[in-house]
Amino acid sequence: MTNPAENSKMEEIISLAKRRGFVFQGSEIYGGLAGTWDYGPLGLALKNNIKNLWWKRFVDDREDMYGVDAAILMNQKVWQATGHVGGFADPVVECSSCKSKLRADHLLENFYKENPTIVHEAISADPSKLQGDIDSFGKEISCSKCGKKGSFSKIRQFNMMFETHVGAIQDESSISYLRPETAQGMFVNYKNIIDSFHPKLPFGMAQIGKAFRNEIAPRDFTFRAREFEQMEIEYLIKPPKGEEWKPLFEQFKDEMIAFSKDIGLDEKHIHPIEIAEADRAFYSKRTIDIEFDFPFGQKELYGLAYRTDYDLKKQGEFSGVPLDYYDEETKEKFIPHCIEPSFGLDRTVLAVLSDAYTVDEMGGEKRTYLKFNSKVAPIKIAVFPLLRNKPELVKKAREIYQTLKKEFGAVEFDDNGNIGKRYRRQDEIGTPFCLTVDFETIEENKGVTIRDRDSGKQERVAEGDLVAYIKRQL
Ligand code: ATP
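^ thats the input. predicted complex w/ adenosine-5'-triphosphate below
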């Protein structure tokens, strides 16, 4: 069971996120649409900062990456090729008491957590094995909605793709799906990249974009949503001899962890977990899940998989377009193999919020604040005139605000309420620096005070040095 303090931490984060304009329930004024979330100005800024850091590290700073932004709607054959049409399904049972539809694997997971003395194997993705395990604990497993024990239907496989029709005629041929992953948008563009850029192997394709899954039980805020964003790389290599792919796989694992630290996640909360062969997708030769200590437990944040040549082979077969690579040097033709680092963007935002959420005491008062790393902080600087009814202070503060805004973009002006309250408001949204223009600034030309969010310490900095000073700090 998740501990109650951690549950309440999650509730506090959700409430702060709503109150301060980070994340709102989707379609809220209509009572919401389960599994959808809308980002407000601060959540969007946080998300964009994370995206930009990701793109910089994995695309711009490298010479071997090609960015793609593929359409969300794709030809249905793409998903027949991958097996998603027939097989992208979750195991569902229905509680005969409250009629809730529940994930069978999650029921079993909760049951094992509540009964730590039970020795068991990993929860299987194979529905008949899962059914066997559920049957063997029969009457002991309780419904996570109503609590009633042991009265579930048999497992049914539920396809998670959102189906739609393209064009005016609705028949089998017009079926399309909202993509359940961004990966295939890259594989189907592999030939375009080859033909227009002639890259040498190894090289990667990278994409950030929306993905959609009709999750049976969306939960844990943005962790399990029905519409979410992914940041993915398909890194293509020559078919490796033996274990040649392993060092590259390790490099990506290290890069994924380095990225997590770069955006401010605590290394102690990041756990690379080796996925056993029985639990991997059948085409994967190795999978590592990078799990994170969310307030509701240790769960998957990212995935890294060596997918062999499965995707390109399948897309080649189904499209009839050969997707092999011609190696000019060796005069060989082959289908490249693929290593795929996959990042959930919404889960990253949630992890960053969770690690930044801090409660401490300052000036004898309890304070709640977001201890964002300044690279991801949605607002970098707030500028205050000490008093709002002194036009000379306001004028100077606005002047400084305009200069800093041009330089840093994410700068706020606030003249509302006493300085202590303004500090608290900025702390709550994680602004690293607050600048105050006071009488010494204008009468004695002594510069402005800059307050550090974490320590609360203030320093005076000359107006002319401000930009350089802040650049150094950021
Ligand atoms: P899970 O086991 O938690 O359902 P998954 O193994 O199906 O996740 P992948 O298919 O590997 O996930 O997707 C890659 C990444 O996309 C995940 O590591 C996660 O960060 C993100 N992701 C997947 N499903 C969701 C979802 N429903 N809501 C938000 N993010 C998601």
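Residues 4-76+183-354 form a domain with the BirA Bifunctional Protein; domain 2 fold (CATH 3.30.930.10).
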